[in-house]
Design goal:
The two termini are 38 Å apart. Helix content is 29%, strand content 22%. The longest helix has 14 residues. A 6-stranded mixed beta sheet has the order 1-2-3-4-5-6, with helices on one face. A 6-stranded mixed beta sheet has the order 7-8-9-10-11-12. The chain contains 16 helices and 22 strands. Helix 3 crosses helix 5 and helix 9 packs across helix 10. The chain is an alpha/beta fold. It folds into 3 domains: 238 residues, Ribonuclease Z/Hydroxyacylglutathione hydrolase-like (Metallo-beta-lactamase, Chain A), CATH 3.60.15.10; 97 residues, Rhodanese-like domain (Oxidized Rhodanese, domain 1); 94 residues, Oxidized Rhodanese, domain 1 (3-Layer(aba) Sandwich), CATH 3.40.250.10. The chain is globular and about 65 Å long.
Length: 459
Amino acid sequence: MYFKQFYLGCLAHASYLIGSDGEAAVVDPQRDIEQYIQEAEALGLKIRYVIETHLHADFVSGHRELAERTGAQIVFGARAGAEFEHYAAKDGDVLKLGKISLRILETPGHTPEGICIVVEEDGKPMKVLTGDTLFIGDVGRPDLVAARGYTPQQMAGMLYDSLHEKLLKLPDEVEVYPAHGAGSLCGRSLSKETSSTIGEQKRLNYALRVADREEFIRMMTTDLPEVPAYFPKDAEINRTGAVPLDQIKRPEALTPAQVKTCGALILDVRSAAAFGAGHVPGAMNIGLSGQFASWAGTLIPIGKPIVIVAENEAGVDEAMIRLARVGHESVIGYLDGGMYAWNQAGFAVATIEQITVADLKDKLTEGIQLIDVRRPAEYAKGRVPTAINIPLADLQKRIGEIDRGRPTAVICQSGYRSSAATSILAASSDFVQLYNVTGGTSAWMAAGYEVTESAACVS
C-alpha cells in the first residue's frame, strides 16, 4: 500500500493519496490539485476515486477539477446532496483499490453527510481517515452551517453515536488520520500532531473520555466560537463544485494612482515588520507567513474587491492561490512595484509602531491599554495581567468597546494576528496611538514576566 499525507499549514488541512497495484484515491483534496496528479503519475498510479469526507466549510475543494482531469469518480456521503455526478456512499460500502479496500462508515455529527474511511489490507483495518469527525485531541464542532436543519444539540448527539458506536470500536492499533490539525476552526482544541491511533485517542482526547451522552452534548455545545462568515459560502461552493483555478482571472498590475482611487480593500500580505514600517493607509495586513487563507476568509467578506500589496509578483501569485482556497475570487489587481512605487509616487504612508514585550512592560506602568486578540482558550491559559480579550475574529464588530483616546497595544501569541488586528483598528477608528507587540505572549512568558491564568476553557 502507498499512503501519503499532504499537509497545508495555511489552512491546517490534511489531504491524502492512497494507492495499490496501479490504482489510487485522493481524499479531501485542496483546491490546487497539481501535486496529487504529479505524485500519482510519478508512482504509476491512476486516480480512480476522489473522496470527500464531508462538505468542507473552511476551504474550497478541487474535487471537480481533479475528477475531470483524471477521469476519477467523486465520492460523497449519501446525504451530501452534491449537485454533480458522484457516487453517494452509504455505511458499509467498499471501494476497491488493488489489494486494499476502503470501507465507508457514515459518521454524522460534524455534518449530517460526514463519512470516515477505513483502509483495510487483507481484511484487517490499518488506518482510518476521519475527516472532521475525530481530530487528534478533539472532535468536530456540531454547529457549522453544513448541518443546516439540525440543532447543535442534535448534531452533537449524532457525533457521540458516530464516535462510540463506530470509530471507537475499531482496534486500538488502527492509525487515525484527520482532515485538520491545530489552527482549524472546525474544532476547538486540536493537537499539532497530524496522526495518532484509536488507542491513543481513547486515552488522551478529552472529548472521548466523556462517557455520558448528555454530558458530551452539553460540553460540545457550550462556549462555541462564532462560525466564520465564509463557512456557509465555501460549503455551497463544494456542493456545486468550484471552477478550475486557471479559469480565475489574474489580477491587473495597477499604478499607485489607480490603487489610491480603486475603492477596493487593500490587502497587504507582507510581514508585520514590513507593514509596520510603511503601508498604504487603510490597508489590512494578513501576512503570507501565517494562516493566511483562514484569516483572509474570516476577516474579508467573500466577493469583496481586493487589491494586493506584496513584496513581489511571486507574492501576488501565492496570495491569489491561497485566497482562492477559501473562495476569494475577486482580486482585481495588485500594486505594481509594491510600496517602493507607492513611495516614489509621493503618496502618504501609514506606519504601526512595533514594540517588544520589554517596551510593553514599561508602557503598562504608564496606563497603556492592552488588547489580546487570541482565542478565549489561549487567553485563559496565560495572559498579560491587564490584557482585555477581544478575539481577532470578533474585532471588527467590537471596536466600539475599545477606548480610542488611550494609547493601545495589541498582542497575540507571536505578533502575526496582532498585526492584522492593529491594521483593522487603524483603518476603522481614529486611535490616538497603536502598537503591535512583537513576539507576543510567547515572548512575554519567555521573559519571565507576570502571567495570569483563568479556569480551563475549551472554546
